Here is the input.
Amino acid sequence: MLTILSCITVQHDISLVVLAGILCAFGSWVTSRLYRHAGNRPTEHAIAWHLLTALTAGISIWGTHFVAMLGFRPSVPVNFDLPLTFASLLIAVAGCAVGIVFSASVKLRYASAIGGAILGLAISGMHYAGMIAYRVRGLVDWDRGYLVASILIAVVFSAVALTLGRRDGKWREYQMTGVLTLAIVSLHFTGMTAFRISPLDISGDYVNPEAFKMLALAIAGTAIVIVMGGLFSYAVENRTRMESIVELTAARNAAESASRAKSEFMSVLSHELRTPLTIVLGYAGILSQINSAQPKDAAGNPVQLHEGKVGVQAELYGQKIGTAANHLLTLINEILDYTSIELGDTKLTRTSFPVSDLLAATKDQFQVLAGEKSIRLHTECDDILVHADHRRLMQILINLVGNAVKFSGASDLHLKARRETDGFRIDVTDNGCGIDGAHIEMIFEAFQQIETADKRSSGGTGLGLAICRKLALAHGGDVTATSIVGEGTTFTLTLPESAIDGAVTSAATKVLGRALRNQKARPALPRAARSGVPGRGQTIVGG
Here is the structure.
């Protein structure tokens, strides 16, 4: 051990030894990270990562060896055999590739240890090939004990390093880094201790070792850049993989949310369909049994009831059946509308009508229900003539006002239509409970409702606002919402300039004006020429 320490401190340039150690530690860390990363990749991708690991390991090992060799001070002029030096690099890369791929691909119990031993032999082969390429002006002698020890150290430590790298654990990567660094450094300096030189005075092209310092720095820098390339590849791939995982997680969460929403929708729908159907069937059964339910006299004969009472009762039952049937029809229409819109089969029948009539009709439709809930309805409208689908805009307002009446708990509900520079807007504003800002966008998604099925106090399928937004988009507009919890909510329907009847008329007038101007710009033909008959003073030239 003291002999090895003496070799390091006395026969080497300490600055280059430190540089070689830094290069070795950094390269071993990158190699460890790439090696463990490759082990977690799919089989079709793992081989490429193993080869990148081998390239990084081979270059960092060779760079460590070469920088340390340049730091060696044998007290005699030296030179390098370039072909053998390059061959040592190839030995390092190829040997690392064989050892790493073997440890990862072969299904044996001790495959990692065997692969590590191959890696250790590759390090030894690279080192001693480089030593053969190291030409000195003197006689070279080898201490066989240190030579054999250096090879054994490289083989054993490399086998331990790859074995640690294949195991799971928080610190395994750093353990592999430390052991691999120890294998490379121990091999080199134990091998250099076995290298002994007796100076001779012979002629030849030799260089003082002091001149190699800049070359050592250049080689170390190059090796670090190449190793950094391997680390960068790992970082890019790892970041891409993490982004893919995030995207897949988001997609999975969205799919699970959609699945829950549809399950919730089916739960709501089953309840919403069952209730009116039960009412219809119940009252229909009562009506079908009116005669059998008549009271009878002592002789068992049915007593004739007053026709007026029967008629009133039948009318009452009929109204209840009609209400339930209309509710059922509304649910079915919502489902059909949403399906039609999703399939892109929405057809708009545009007509011209005042917005004030639209607001008045909406107010009339909810006057009774609003009165039952003690809600005051207010309308305010600019003079706007629109060119749009009256039924679809009415459907949007019925949904917005209906939601406010049923869910907001408001005392006042305002419908305001205002002209704007780029179109017009209709606001439905209530002073009710409001909606949490986190739920604003969610309520416009299909099958989504703020309340769960078991806590829902009012009916609904969760399709109304989704349909409203899609119908508004079909008109070139949108439906948005703003809300403050405890103060109220405003739903806004915006439509573009093209939905205003004056804008349509203006556009048509411009087109007609351009056509008339173009007509006037054309040169006028003589009447005879226009009729195709030669006029006076005209001659027809034929070919």
